[in-house]
Amino acid sequence: MAKQGTKSSLHRQSKSITGKVGLLAKKSLKPQQTRQIIRRFHILQKNKHAILSRLESLQLANGKRDNYDELKKGKTYKTAFAEFKLPSKNAENEIYKIDSSQTICDLINSIAKIDAEIQQRGGIERYQSASTQGQNSNRGGDSSKKLLEWLRSDKYQSKLTNVNALEIGSLSPQNVISTSGVFSPVVRIDLNSQDPLIIEQDFMERPLPQNESEKFNLISCSLVLNFVPSHEERGQMLIRITKFLKKPDKTQLPLSCLFLVLPLPCVSNSRYFDNEQLLKVMKSLGFTQSFYHEAKKVAYWLFDWDGKVKRAKYAKKQLHSGPTRNNFCITL
Ligand SMILES: C[S@@+](CC[C@H](N)C(=O)[O-])C[C@H]1O[C@@H](n2cnc3c(N)ncnc32)[C@H](O)[C@@H]1O
Description:
InterPro entries: Bmt2/SAMTOR
Bound molecules: S-adenosylmethionine
Order of helices and strands: HHHHHHHHEHEEEHEHHEE
CATH topology of the largest domain: Rossmann fold
Protein name: 25S rRNA adenine-N(1) methyltransferase
Number of domains: 2
Main location: nucleus
Family: Belongs to the BMT2 family.
Distance between the termini: 35 Å
CATH class of the largest domain: Alpha Beta
Number of helices: 12
Strand content: 5-15%
Structural class: alpha/beta
CATH superfamily of the largest domain: Vaccinia Virus protein VP39
Organism: Lodderomyces beijingensis
């Protein structure tokens, strides 16, 4: 397996030495199961991120800060991790809430339980497998089919010579981005590579390009931003993406695009976000929407990049009310 960079502590986890993780990952899943796995995994990631942030501020106030690897070596973590048992099928899942009465020890305890739950549920491999299988039932297969359909339109057809692509969050080298023959090369990265042709790398730790030849004509970021646990980090990921795109040059008409895919509820049912807000955020980073498609559960965008990143600020503000809304947001 190709390896580059390191996984961020947030996503890093141990694999089962019994090899169970791999077996679980391959099992065929029903659509409802894939949704449950993906949803629970996102909740756990989000809770863990919030608990780690709270822990960091408590530790800073106490003048002593352990990094995540040190924390995992401590007795509190090890005991809670070893003792955690997944709830039986019909029992309620554990809720990992933060409240102001919690001590450092309580927080470490929760982190250990979340890590143990992720591992016992099959780890990131099972989440990826659910995502791959979910592609068929939820959105008619590989999302990059939509990308190629758009790129083959009159608007882009003439720009498709000598173009390369970076796929962030790649589950397979067999998707349409890779097999269309349009891009050469296609650089595929993922936090957890499932194929020797996918580099195991955190995009946030990928070394910045030193010159234009190390940049890309197209970046694909399909169902990745919603995996990133906080609104600030999602914004940072978008800013970072601009550093990897080739500067558009009007005389030679090169391609400089971002293909973005998000679960539809991120823009259709969030308290803090919608499509209008996304377009404002994107505009401030130099992106203009050229295509948009809304499927039943997923939304797709193709953005052109003009190379001009402004320093606009977008904070988390309530835009819509209602008890059944989610809290998805992207801030700059
Ligand atoms: C839901 S899967 C989607 C994969 C695929 N792009 C698709 O559209 O089906 C999200 C993937 O993004 C990867 N990912 C999340 N954050 C990442 C990061 N910072 N760098 C690289 N990969 C990341 C995860 O490991 C996971 O495999």
